[in-house]
Amino acid sequence: MELPIELEKYRGTTGNFVTYFGDIYPGSIFEFNEIPDRFFIIPPIHWREVQELQKGIITPDSLKDYAEEIYDPKVITRIIEGKSVGTDTVLHNPEMKGTQKWKQMFVFGAGASANCVPKTELTAFENFDYCPPLSDKLFDSKFASISGAYDGVNLFQSSLRRSKRTVEEFLEEEWQIIKRTHNTPLLARHTNIVYYLQELFFTVSDQVIRNFSRVNLYASFADVLMKKLSFDAMAKSAIVSFNYDTLLDHYLSEIFGVKFSQIDNYVDSNVNPFMLFKPHGSHNWGYHFSKAFYDVHGNNAPYYLYNNKTPLDEIYYTHIGEPLHANGWALEGKYSMNKNKIEVITDVIRHYHPAMLVPYNDKDDFVMPYHHTQRMEWFMSEMEDLFLIGWKGNEKKFNEALKMKAHNLNRIIIVNPKPENVIANLSRHIGDLSKYQVICLPDLEALLDSDYM
């Protein structure tokens, strides 16, 4: 590949390479004769490892832990000089007070929300227009009244249906195209999908709470947990929800008397007997647009961004304004959005860019503040019981954290009608499960009727 002239100097000079899809890679440009169709951005801390690799045969696979592949120079929109990037150099980390016992973590996946009523109510719930959708139903025709407002969502659905792939596989394939080529129309569609998902799960949450509170198992779960934790003031539970909806959040708030009006309310174990982590974001979380942006575009943000094919770097670093985190590279292997900028949406929803992860197959990330991630991993290091409720066990980044941190884990309680799939996914990521006591239950109702909690 022939380097554009403006990139030539970075063969020996470090820079921060801003991409149109929003990530920023610090380092220098390396090229290898064995791989002529791309170049690599390698940070200085990995130069020595790469020099050692060059004594043998260089392959893309051997470089994957040290470098970022660039196939199309046009994905780099600009280069920021200097050794550091960002305006927020302090990792926000509220103090924890007193002795706290962190023993039980409850992990909820999409299957929990899709089945959050008793078996006697399940048929009516499944036929309800706003039953929380699993991934294969995210773009179902019954949501056309919502998706109809998002041109980018409408455009990709025909190809999705023809592909015969899962939603995650299809979107992952498109994301790889976005990373490898400069394709602003495709990236704009993915941005449009985030806004659609935000509105969808706002509506789903509202409608389910309005129509199924009398029989909602999340309410029962929160009630059982509240009564149990009331016996021990030092006991704290961790609750991890990979769901965009706020069904569980609502019942935890109501039953425990906790208001999630600020982002720190979710993880304040000094005040509350639980911490709620949402690694993939939430429909009521967002990055506040700059006043200059929302004064002009008001409630029109998703349509303006889509129609203008606005790339993520412009959204992140111009329209949100100074969102970079100087510690981001140490935490994520690259600079990215400062996730400590995530707020609970408390005013006009269109004044925020949604803080939600598009459901990709392999591109796993945490979309929550850095101190949320830190506390979740601290909890993992102390927990003894792990409850997996309606979760497939296939979020790579979460499983990597389990593998690294969960040294005191004794029991894994799998709440799923197909536990063998969860066991297979967990085993692939965290190893042999025979060292744990593994208990399988078919559904949340069975867990609530058991003594395991």
Strands, helices and their partners?
Elements: E1 15-19, E2 24-32, E3 35-42, H1 47-53, H2 60-63, E4 68-70, E5 76-80, E6 101-108, H3 110-114, H4 122-126, H5 144-147, H6 151-163, H7 167-180, H8 184-212, H9 217-229, E7 235-241, H10 247-256, E8 274-277, E9 281-288, H11 291-297, H12 301-307, H13 312-321, H14 328-332, E10 342-344, E11 352-356, H15 370-382, E12 385-389, H16 396-405, E13 411-415, H17 419-430, E14 437-441, H18 444-448
Parallel strand pairs: 6-7, 6-12, 7-8, 12-13, 13-14
Antiparallel strand pairs: 1-2, 1-5, 2-3, 3-4, 9-10, 9-11
Helix pairs in contact: 6-8, 7-8, 8-12, 9-10, 15-16
Task: Outline the structure in words.
The protein has about 450 residues and is of the alpha/beta class. It has two domains: about 5-80, SH3 type barrels (Roll); about 85-453, no CATH class. Helices cover about 40% and strands about 20% of the residues. It has helices at about 45-55, 60-65, 110-115, 120-125, 145, 150-165, 165-180, 185-210, 215-230, 245-255, 290-295, 300-305, 310-320, 330, 370-380, 395-405, 420-430, 445-450; strands at about 15-20, 25-30, 35-40, 70, 75-80, 100-110, 235-240, 275, 280-290, 340-345, 350-355, 385-390, 410-415, 435-440. A six-stranded parallel beta sheet has the order 8-7-6-12-13-14. The longest helix is centred in the middle third of the chain and has 29 residues, at about 185-210. The radius of gyration is 23 Å and the shape is globular. The mean pLDDT is about 95.
